[in-house]
Write a structure and sequence with these properties.
Blueprint (H helix, E strand, L loop, with lengths): L1 E11 L4 H9 L5 E10 L8 E6 L5 E10 L11 E9 L10 E13 L6 E3 L17 E11 L5 E10 L5 H9 L3 H5 L6 E2 L2 H14 L7
Antiparallel strand pairs: 1-5, 1-9, 1-10, 2-3, 2-6, 3-4, 4-5, 6-7, 6-8, 8-9
């Protein structure tokens, strides 16, 4: 089981300049930047569960929301923090006619939060720590991602913080990652929609169902 504490925002269209500048200019150069395709199996009428095939990684990733918490130190940035648990499994031959393919081009920054003062880890194009560095046991990933649903119009951008480590420690790891940036972030993330990936996907599919259909000739 993989535990995480997360906050995430979405913007339609182009990435807001303030978000872009904060992400790319306030720390080490990010890793990543390579596109991948995730295939989601939508769960009707719920935003608390995510099921997907992640890029070329074999197997199915199951992610469930287990709790939400308010963290006073982060209140200016996010009214709540979401605690998720994730499992992976292999189901041979699993296919779904309802799957939604999503192209993601992600840039990633990573922090070691095992101590009160966070330490940024340099990453390579594969999102792995560079030579002489290792992935922390207690840490937080910060990602800026361009998102497109294949076969559907519209581009989105998302900024997300995903703290990882021991279940009881992930809220602390998230707080340590965000707190030094809270003043700057409070002024720029409020323009985005505070959503998880499952909630964003559910909202987009619901929008499609409510849009008027074109008339036949």
């Amino acid at each position: 089981m993989f535990a995480s504490a997360e906050v995430r925002w979405f913007w339609p269209g182009n990435c807001p300049q303030q978000i872009h500048d904060w992400f790319f200019k306030t720390g080490l150069p990010p890793g990543g930047g390579r596109p991948r395709i995730d295939r989601y199996l939508p769960q009707p009428n719920t935003a608390d569960i995510g099921l997907k095939e992640r890029g070329d990684t074999p197997g199915l990733e199951f992610k469930g929301l287990v709790a939400t918490r308010g963290i006073a130190a982060l209140a200016a940035v996010a009214s709540r923090v979401e605690i998720w648990c994730k499992w992976s499994c292999t189901i041979p031959g699993l296919t779904s006619a309802d799957e939604v393919a999503v192209t993601k081009t992600r840039w990633l920054r990573q922090f070691d939060t095992s101590q009160p003062d966070r330490v940024e880890i340099p990453l390579d194009a594969d999102e792995r720590p560079k030579a002489n560095h290792t992935m922390p046991v207690q840490g937080c990933n910060v990602e800026l991602t361009e998102v497109n649903m294949l076969g559907r119009s519209g581009m989105w951008w998302t900024l997300g913080f995903e703290a990882f480590g021991d279940f009881d420690a992930v809220p602390v790891n998230l707080t340590r990652a965000i707190l030094p940036e809270s003043a700057a972030l409070a002024g720029i993330v409020s323009s985005g929609a505070f959503l998880s990936y499952p909630a964003w996907l559910s909202a987009r599919l619901a929008d499609e169902q409510t849009q008027p259909q074109g008339r036949s000739a």
